[in-house]
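Tutorial, part two.
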Amino acid sequence: MSEEEPRSKSLIIFGRDVSQIPCFRNSFLYGTLGGIGFGLAHFLFTSKVAKSVNYSVYAFSLVTVGFWMQCRLENSKTKFEMMRLQQQLQERALFEGSQRDPDRAPVELVEV
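Running the prediction step on this input gives:
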């Protein structure tokens, strides 16, 4: 690698750059914070270390998967809406100025 090219700080797992995966970063950040928070709260109330660690892992998993599913669903909805909008814009450009143009005012024939 030459000195002119900046070296990117990306994490590669199983051959995929995780910085390119939508929702990956936020899901793991919220999962980590949720797991630490729930585990710490459980430890403060019960003082049982092993059980608190187990609950922390459970909370991490649940929050990560839950947020991942919610975020991906929103991404899919947005992508679907963008595809529909793009199709409608293409149809509008195709029919603009023709008889099938929905915004075109009907021409009234006046007899003279």
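Helices lie at 24-46, 49-95. In part three we will examine how such features are distributed along the chain.
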